[in-house]
Inverse folding.
């Protein structure tokens, strides 16, 4: 009986070390800064098909309208920009 408990304990410890800790060390993609082109690619690949797509032209207009979102630089992050961009895109109409 003792050997079975010891084996269970060792397997649980191995799982924790190999799987759980590895997940905690990986950077969260939502907080990694990206170039405008990188953000467009990631954003368009990860939104539902029914949502409006982002383009370079649209993101430049968004950036001009919301400069406070870019005080720390010109990088885009999913965490900071996605929700606001999605809300804005739903009401955006191309005037050109």
């Amino acid at each position: 009986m003792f050997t079975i408990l010891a084996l269970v304990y060792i397997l649980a410890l191995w799982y924790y070390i190999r799987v759980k800790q590895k997940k905690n060390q990986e950077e969260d993609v939502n907080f990694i800064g990206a170039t405008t082109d990188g953000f467009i690619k990631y954003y368009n690949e990860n939104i539902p098909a029914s949502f409006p797509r982002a383009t370079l032209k649209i993101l430049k207009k968004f950036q001009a309208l919301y400069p406070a979102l870019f005080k720390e630089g010109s990088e885009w992050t999913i965490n900071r920009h996605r929700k606001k961009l999605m809300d804005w895109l739903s009401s955006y109409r191309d005037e050109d």
